[in-house]
Specification:
Blueprint (H helix, E strand, L loop, with lengths): L6 E12 L2 E9 L4 E3 L2 E3 L6 H13 L1 E16 L2 E15 L10 E6 H7 L3 H12 L4 E7 L20 H16 L4 E5 L2 H14 L3 E4 L4 H6 L1 H13 L5 E5 L4 H8 L11 E7 L2 E8 L4
Parallel strand pairs: 1-6, 8-11, 9-10, 9-11
Antiparallel strand pairs: 1-2, 1-4, 2-3, 2-7, 5-6, 8-12, 12-13
């Protein structure tokens, strides 16, 4: 007997405040006769945060921004084991969604009413956790996308550009950065790092702040400066931020953040969720391009 393939889904606990009261958004599905959190299965080459945002929009009409990573829920279905991943989320905008065969109602509830109405105990626990956890920020650490090979580059190495694959990877990163509502971009001043963040910068109308200390050359000579800069970035984190660096200096970047380093492939992103200047949880996003 062949083993059933695991089903992977993603969604969110969407919160807002109205008249001093916190509310959570639930959906009603007639075919299950339940009230639940919005979620759904991923599509090909889609990262989990992208799945969560797409499913939230499709099922509720809400364009959201993800916040803190929440626990995953695992359970068995008739078609195989299923795991659903969740983030706390806030609303950018909401459009009216007409009822259909998948979702018959979309409704905001007070936290107390939502806990009483939601059909699944595990989702009750997610709502409680989303409400109880303090405000957080996200810091996305990015290893630059695939660059041209050194042997094919004759100029200053800091001017070495992205390859065709790297440009595709940089373009794909825009959806991930947008999922977390990144509002600040910091990069090594080397061209391949700046180019990695540039597609998102153009779309979001942001400037890429360049830091010489984060270049491969300067960082290798003065790793203490790398650690010092990253510690300062973390302590002053006041908005969702992405910072792009190079493989040789990633260990010192992580040392400055006070967390254990991990190998990263080109265009990989490590999301750090920060509360009160401390990293409380991390997650990793591998490139699909």
């Amino acid at each position: 007997m062949s083993k059933k393939r695991k089903i992977v889904a993603a969604g969110g606990v969407i919160l807002r405040e109205r008249s001093g009261t916190q509310q959570v958004l639930l959906i009603h599905r007639d075919r299950y006769d339940d009230w639940s959190l919005p979620k759904g299965k991923g599509e090909a080459d889609e990262l989990l945060p992208e799945t969560a945002l797409r499913e939230i929009t499709e099922e509720t009409g809400v364009d959201a921004v993800l916040d803190l990573r929440l626990p995953s829920i695992r359970y068995d279905t008739s078609t195989g084991p299923k795991v659903s991943h969740y983030w706390r989320a806030t609303v950018k905008r909401q459009r009216n969604r007409k009822p259909d065969h998948e979702v018959s109602q979309v409704k905001w509830f007070s936290i107390e009413d939502a806990l009483a109405r939601v059909s699944y105990e595990a989702e009750q626990d997610l709502i409680r956790r989303a409400v109880e956890l303090p405000t957080s920020n996200v810091l996305l650490v990015v290893r630059h996308a695939k660059a041209m090979q050194r042997k094919h580059w004759t100029g200053n190495d800091q001017r070495r550009r992205l390859s065709g694959r790297g440009r595709r990877q940089a373009k794909r990163l825009t959806d991930l950065l947008a999922a977390f509502g990144v509002e600040r971009l910091v990069s090594s001043s080397s061209e391949r790092c700046v180019q990695t963040l540039l597609p998102y910068a153009k779309g979001a109308k942001l400037e890429v702040e360049t830091v010489d200390a984060l270049t491969e050359e300067a960082g290798s000579k003065d790793p203490k400066a790398v650690r010092k800069y990253m510690a300062k970035l973390l302590s002053g984190l006041d908005r969702p931020t992405a910072v792009c660096g190079h493989r040789p200096i990633l260990p010192d970047m992580y040392a400055g953040l006070g967390i254990k380093s991990a190998p990263m492939v080109v265009a990989e992103v490590r999301g750090l969720h920060v509360v009160g200047g401390d990293v409380v949880t991390t997650e990793t996003f591998k490139p699909t391009a």
